[in-house]
User: Fold this.
Amino acid sequence: MKIATWNVNSLRARADRVEAFLQRSDVDVLALQETKCKDDNFPWDLFENSGYEVAHYGLNQWNGVAIASRVGLHDVERTFPGQPTFGKGDKEPEQEARAIGATCGGVRVWSLYVPNGRSLGDPHMPYKIEWLDVLRAQATGWLQADPEAQVALVGDWNIAPRDEDVWDIEMFLREGYTHVSEPERQAFRAFEEAGYSDVVRPLHPGPGVYTYWDYTQLRFPKKEGMRIDFVLASPALAGRVTGAQIDREERKGKGASDHAPVIVELD
DNA sequence: ATGGTCGCGAGGCGA
Assistant:
């Protein structure tokens, strides 16, 4: 069985690439982030024609997450329990379409688009940390209820957990960039302390291994990227991993997302 | 050079 995660940065703009990816990658489950649409303009036919069921959670032109599967798609949850909302100005706090879960081939898969944080002093940063804290508390509970649970927390985590996960850590720290701050890294480490592990890193150690390259500044040809897309697996699932790939080729050419797909193979 | 790139959706915001 193969599971992939990919921040597509608009599903409609990437429809041809997503269809081609499904054709060549042979994945059984594809978790998507940043579909950037609501159900009304979601490309349902793309998945049906490719032989996949799909579940989507999209509220507007921002965010949006989906799971496509050809090994079953059951017990779909849109938002995880207690998922924090964000209040814009003096308006009512609103839920954002950043998490969808489904059971596919016996694995509980969560497609996650972690809040960006924007900047260290921005209200979106405490929102990001709380969002992660609540998710980690839930994910901890799932393992306490069943230590053998097969859970995959996959997606765009918007965190570079280690110095090697960005191309120039000195610059990131000097400039006070997000994604590398201690609170963000601690929030990520808490998942590892809860028993979830990054199953791709052991197979593709850094430095220089990235999943995201900014569109500006020629970041991709200059190999200046970030590793921020992860597959975190529960212990029982991690024990099944036999291979992994970061599809760097997908970042090439016209019409690429700024993120590459991350693929994990299970026995 | 006060920019550079995308996508959404039709001006500016978010990444």
Notes: The CA atoms of residues 210 and 250 of chain A lie 13 Å apart. Residues 9-10, 12-13, 34, 36-37, 61-62, 116, 118, 158, 214-218, 257-258 of chain A lie near DNA strand B (CB under 10 Å from a C1'). Chain A has a mean pLDDT of 97. Residues 124-145 of chain A form the longest helix (22 residues).
